[in-house]
Amino acid sequence: QVQFVESGGGLVQPGGSLRLSCAASGNIFSIYAMGWYRQTPGKQRELVATITNGGSTIYPDAVKGRFTISRDNAKNTLYLQMNSLKPEDTAVYYCNKNGLLQFAWGQGTQVTVSS
Q: What is the rounded CA–CA span in Å between residue 115 and residue 103?
């Protein structure tokens, strides 16, 4: 029922910035906590940012101070501003509900950080 389309990824040098977008096919961001996730080959999908339906944000130490999650409920769009990017940030980035029963995963958007 709910679909996600991630965009905004690309190739960037270390220290650079990218802004990712996640368009949802429903007005869900005011209802659920949402998150940005990333995955590299052979590794488990990793939660890198959370925003609650009340607007609180949570980040793991790996990205804290560099990534900022935000949302536009009227546009059904979730954003991830990524600054001071590092090679270890290279991954496919996805958005989804942050909870027990998640929606289907989208295609994701590739972020490659390389010099």
A: 35
